Amino acid sequence: MSGWASGLRRVVVPGAEVVAAVAGGLVMPVAARFVDVDPLDRTGQVSALAALQVRYTVLGVVLIGVLMFCHRWRGGRAYDVAKRVVCAALAGLASGFLAGGIVVALKGTPWPLFGLSGDTGRLVEWSASIVHGHGNPNPTYPPLTLHALAWWAQLFHHGDTAAAFRDMEIGGAAITGPAAYCAWRFVLSPLWALVVGVVPAYSIIDPYKPYGAVVMIVLLPVFVVSVRHTMRVGDMAWRRVLVSAVLFGLLYSLLFLIYPGSSLWSAPGLVAAVLLLFPWSKVRVGRLLAFIGVTVAVFGLLCGWYVKDLTGPGNVDRAYGFDAYTDPAFFSMWRTDMPGDVGQWPPPGELAGLGLFSVLTFAGVGVALWLGWQRPLAVTVACVFGGTWLWRMEIASRMWATGTVQLWPRTGNQLLYCVLVLGAAATAFAATRLAGWPPLPSRLGAHVGALAAVLLVLGSAASSVSDYWMPAKTNSYKILAYVSQTMRKPDGSCPKYAPNHQCSATGDQSWMNNFAGPRNH
Questions:
Q1: pLDDT of 355
Q2: What is the share, in percent, of the chain residues with pLDDT greater than 90?
Q3: 331-364: string of b/e by CB count within 10 Å (b at 16+)?
Q4: Who is most buried in 118, 454, 462, 492, counting CB within 10 A?
Q5: Residue 33 CB coordination number (10 Å)
Q6: Which of 269, 495, 488, 470 is nearest to 382 (CA)?
């Protein structure tokens, strides 16, 4: 292959992966528009979930069939490319399933989840202020998210930020899988990017405010790439050191301005990983310090003002939700922070209150460190986990004295994602060490078997999470879509499926009766 053709391939094939992933993410919410059910009737919800499952399964089987066909066609010349495209498309289909579930949940109403109540109402109001030229009224909220919402509203909805936020919820859910896959492809092969990055991502996927989960998911592989880069930076030419530092600074700034929480919690772990893995020598230290200095300088130039606003004395979080009263060491399940009596939480486990799932995930962390103790993936993710854990415990330990929460319960999702990634990575490390022993009967068989397993796991998870958001008058996140379905439309009429054709200006707010404020302070 000529140099020109080889260069073109290096661009076209990754581009095909990105296109396949995004297309996979969008096809399911488009297909969901043709699912004709009453989203508030339980039978209709079950029928919709089954209809989405049929579409997802058929498309997944077709993708696996394409892979099998390419294995035989022209001696398998296109097999590796096909594998990359199939894995990318499956990653998109998985999160697209959830986006399709949100389309069904909001069928017949123009509102986003929760109508104009709670966080939805505030974000719609703040972004509308930007649309009307009054600027951002809340300088501590992620500015790029609000400006992107305002821009989308102006471009596609004549300035209607509620409609834009609805698009963000559906589109954000759809793009989570592609974002996870594409980010992890900088670290892992296609199949392992799917297993290590996308499957664990479903444990924290969030259509309500999707940008936080997307940034949290993408940051982990970005951290791994950063640490791997610092391990090599001491031997690079100065020009490459400085250019790469600028690019990393821009990337970190972009993610921070979309959602800063994950970056703040993870920063100590990232520093620890660099200190642990950098090949220390006098010759290399200068380039490392230059790389870090330029990266921090670019980040400070673009985000310094926002860091100052976030860490200022006036930015105090006193949001004592349900999760602020739970055992801070428990993060293996996310019950939501909706108010009301949930009984015993965490649920009782088999081993001194610890459930089998938690035991297995912690065992996975140990195996990952055992097999990958010198690998950037294992060390970086473990350090990020450790730093986030200590940050969580430090803030929680001062909650009584300060009367502030400072988002410590939100670290649970990041901790869960880290341990699941490490558990999946342990499987990848073991498979690498055992490659060729015992001999696999067929490479195609191994790939098809793995993809079939991932298809089933993600399909089942997608159905479960989609059901979690179906509208119902219950003490859970189901109430968010229920409020949207009972809120009067802008023209004064009720949504098509409003119960008994009754609605109000704010939607059914009876869930507020379950609210219990903080017991302390």
A1: 84
A2: 75
A3: bbeeebebbeeeeeebeeeeeeebbeebeebeeb
A4: 462
A5: 11
A6: 269
Q: Which residues lie across from 354 on neighbouring strands?
A: 351
The kind and range of the H/E element at 32 are helix 3-32
Cα Rg of the chain (Å, integer): 24
Question: What's the pLDDT at 326?
Answer: 84
Chain center to CA of 375: 24
Largest CA distance in the chain: 76
Q: Nearest to residue 196, comparing CAs of 451, 366, 421?
A: 421
Three-state DSSP state, 518: coil
d(CA 61, CA 217): 27
Cα 48 to Cα 268: distance, rounded to the nearest angstrom: 44
Query: Which of 304, 259, 267 has the alpha carbon at shortest distance from 391?
Result: 267
Compare 506 and 444 and report the one with higher pLDDT.
Answer: 506
Instruction: For 61-74, give the DSSP string.
Output: HHHHHHHHHHHHGG
pLDDT in tens, 71-80: 888 877 889 9
The angle, 0 to 180 degrees and rounded to 10, between the axes of the packed helices 411-433 and 210-233 is: 50
Cis check for the bond before 438: say yes or no (omega within 30 of 0).
yes
The mean pLDDT of 188-209, rounded to a whole number, is 95
